[in-house]
Amino acid sequence: MDGKDLKLSWELNPLKIFRIEILPLLADLQLAIALLLIIAICSISGTVIEQGESIAFYQENYPETPALFGFLTWKVILLLELDHVYRTWWFLSILVLFGSSLTACTFTRQLPALKSANRWKFYSKKQQFENLALSAELETASLDSLEKILYQRGYQVFQEGNKIYGRKGIIGKIGPLIVHASMLIILAGAIVGSLTGFIGQEMVQSGNTFKIKNIVDAGPFAESQIPKDWSVKVNRFWIDYTPEGRIDQFYSDLSILDQSGEEVDRKTIFVNEPMRYHRVTMYQADWAIAAVRVRVNQSPVFHLPMAQLNTAGGGRIWGTWIPTKPDLSQGVSLLAKDLQGTVLIYDATGKLVASVREGMSTEVNGVTLFVDEIIGSTGLQIKSDPGIPIVYLGFGLLMLSVLMSYVSHSQIWAWQDSDRFYLGGKTNRASVTFEREMIEILDILDGELKGDRNVSSTTVVSSQ
Fold it and tell me: Which of 103, 250, 268, 322 is spaced 20 to 30 A from 120 at the CA atom?
């Protein structure tokens, strides 16, 4: 085969190119660290910048003049897709690249290191012992005694003739592999959640039933996760207030209904206490005033919706208009700011004419106006993330593997050569503890042989 054919063979062998050119690059530690930092920065941006909001929200909170930090405007956010960072193609690509780097490092470094640690061989040369971090040369000693001592200290011992090899802590070599595997599992869970999860928001009047439809953010494969065979009923919504009139907590009594309308689950939720059903989580996130029930003289009950008014940042107020004449030529405005039951009534000129509590009445425009009930709405944030169990599994393995990685992998060799006995060992961490252990082993051997045998050399500490 001439040089041209050799070059052509190289060009047509993508597996060889991948193994020699691409794989070492992916396994590079600096690349992995750089990708991890990029992922951290992107995650921070997704935490700081509100996710899944409307364009109007970003236009209001991130105007072009003045731009936040001099560059961050709503146009930049939408251009870089920072309004849904965790579902963007570039963020998922970084996760895949980081996972590929971890996988390459696992197969090129961690697995070979584990295989090397799992292989064992006996030492039968003086030079091999002198090259160890800790070694000793004795006039004589008992291999059987040494084997018993090593067993008592948790070593796995192999003996062949006049040679011994002992090791313990092989789990410390497995730990880094589990670390990589757990990180890959976490990445897989994050990708699954990004592709199949969704976030919805619903503002539901107390007493109404709804199905999850208002999806504000969803992955490309989230349709299968949106429930269609069950609905949610808001049995009741209420707010607890402090004696000073401030909101203490707000609650929603929710029921899950199957397709036949039968209740299959029920729970009262509040802030930091959500309801979970079939991998869907419903959080208590907001509230509003939905409607008011009123009567005019002897009329039937009118159920009038209330709308939130624009107060230019002056607080939340809801209002409605109530006719006081059959031809709708005259009426009053009714305003409320909370569900404590007090409403304010204004005439057509904007003058306050009455203040009345829920369940009471007042005279306005020559009629008796009864305010029977103020009806609230609960604001629910609804999430589904199928990747969460996978992420939890990964974090559990990660904590376990970190503990495993702290276990020292220690090795001890011994060789009986006629009138000389050689003992040596090494460890990958906790060197001081291992040195003490070697000295204790030598002291035990020396104690067993005292009287007719003497130790002719002491422990030698050397760097490999």
Answer: 103
- Is the pLDDT at 134 greater than 80? The verdict is yes
Please compute the mean of the pLDDT values over residues 200-220 and round it to a whole number. Answer: 89
Other C-beta atoms closer than 10 Å to the C-beta of 369 total: 22
Picking from 200, 187, 183, the residue whose alpha carbon sits closest to that of residue 110 is: 183
Q: What is the pTM of this model?
A: 0.72
The per-residue pLDDT for range 291-309, each reduced to its tens digit, is 999 998 888 888 999 998 8
Whether the link from the prior residue into 66 is cis, omega within 30° of 0, is: yes
Nearest residue to 102 via CA among 172, 181, 40? 181
Q: How far apart are CA 94 and CA 42, in angstroms?
A: 10
Q: pLDDT > 70: what percent of the chain?
A: 92
Q: 234-255, pLDDT tens digit by residue? A: 999 998 988 887 888 989 999 9
Q: How many residues make up the chain in this entry?
A: 464
